[in-house]
Amino acid sequence: MKQLAEVLQSGNISEFVSSEYTVYPKSIAKAGGTTIAIVKTAEGKKLFAVGDDDLYDALVGEPAQGGEGKLCALSHANRLTINNFFPNTAPRAFGTKVATMGLGDRLGIASPGHIETIRGKDIRPVLAQQSIRELALTGRTYEDVLDAAAYAVLQEGYTDGYGADGDHLKKIEDIEYALRLGFTMLTLDCSEKIDNSIAGASDEELAAKYEALPASLREQYESRYLGEAAAVPGATLAFTKESLVKDVLIYHEAINFMEEIYNRYIATLDREVDFEISIDETETPTSPEAHYLVANELRHRGVSIFSMAPRFCGEFQKGIDYIGDIAQFERELASHAAIAVHFGYKLSIHSGSDKFSVFPLIGQYTKGLFHLKTAGTNWLEAVRVVASENPSLYRRMHQYALDHFEEATAYYHVTTDLSAIAPLESVTDEQLPDYMNENNARQLLHITYGLLLQAKNEDGSLTFADEFFQTLYDREDVFVEGLKRHIGKHLELLGK
Ligand SMILES: O=C(O)[C@@H](O)[C@H](O)[C@H](O)C(=O)CO
């Protein structure tokens, strides 16, 4: 470590040679008289610091061998110190004028590869993006999520800014949890306030429900939407009394919820937060008219949003390409994108992983100004690494996923055909990575991530996770290249 201290202070990192550990060269940073760097050791990544002032004193670590400097854990406390001395390692809001991409990292190890993929492009990364569902399934916390993203930004010397999205939040306590930690994006999941029963209600039931609303409210809706046609350039909108009644009954409570959370939190914060509305995780596809209604009501109520995630026609399932009539998708996308432009926010594409057949349309109709959310596909790239570098582990994980698939379908909507997946015994080790190119196998491994990562043996040890993370640690170069290739394909087709 003495040599490392010397080369860090001299700035001649190229002279550093060690059999014990390697330095991430882009991580070298100075604040006052202290220099830090992230190093890869046999025991994991550490933060090395050498110096003698505030930053050095604030970092918690052990004296390094050789007496020069100290070796610190990539801990939550040290991350907060790093944030204080290096502001670019703290998340920020981006607003509506730049394209953004949610790069959800369920493992806490994907962000370096994401940064290398997105660096220099006309789009900014939301590296710290996880839903409460993902935290529950992986056993992680939002502190873990932020820590991992911040250390990745330090490791990669990334200075263009990154976001932190408390994703698919439904409960007040989860919203407050994310905001308390400094999350810079809030995705409000309104699915529990959307009344999906309306789609199948009889005319009598619809009339009774609608008449039960206050007359003043009904008159307000009717005067706004049944009078003059909505004038949104590029959007085809046609309200009828029948469609208006349904949309009001489907979304009225959700709109109230959006307004409540905005007024209670977003409007009162002393900092910028990108506020996203999610109405995508629901059975009811969002018609362009319904999208316009929600957006227009929010405007009338003074609610300003960063992005809106409608439930598009067709299927945006996890980890696989778009399923549906692409011509209809294009027609409706044109209106959805025009509505977003009209009201001054970005269209957000959830379950954005792998929707290659519609990415060019999304880039075209949003004019390159969108928010795209991915998460599962990044987990699957890690699984691909295991399939190529540790076939025995992959086979055990694959079998476990087959055995526990039904349990996982409680969390995610998929139409996976397990019978279409090639039997493990028919696949050679060299062919294992090909599973990640087959939709049914992709969804099998996608939705079982929580069960796989938290599986335990009878003695309480982790069945797969320790070996899984060690494999990814040993072959992080393969993981980075896989993410650059796969997420790079997303960006290229989106026109970025
Ligand atoms: O799995 C989750 O809960 C999230 O990744 C969620 O699916 C996210 O909002 C998303 O759409 C990622 O593609």
TrEMBL record:
Listed EC numbers: 5.1.2.7
GO molecular function, one term: metal ion binding
InterPro entries: UxaE (IPR032586)
Pfam families with a match to the protein in the record: UxaE
UniProt keyword terms in alphabetical order: Isomerase, Metal-binding
Keyword Isomerase: yes
Catalytic activity as recorded in UniProt: keto-D-tagaturonate = keto-D-fructuronate
Active-site residues, Swiss-Prot/TrEMBL: 167 (proton acceptor), 276 (proton donor)
Cofactors: a divalent metal cation
Top-rank taxon: Bacteria
UniProt-annotated binding residues for a divalent metal cation: 168, 318, 350
Family, similarity comment: Belongs to the UxaE family.
Role of this protein: Catalyzes the epimerization of D-tagaturonate (D-TagA) to D-fructuronate (D-FruA).
Protein name: Tagaturonate/fructuronate epimerase
Protein's organism: Paenibacillus agaridevorans
Source species taxonomy: Bacteria, Bacillati, Bacillota, Bacilli, Bacillales
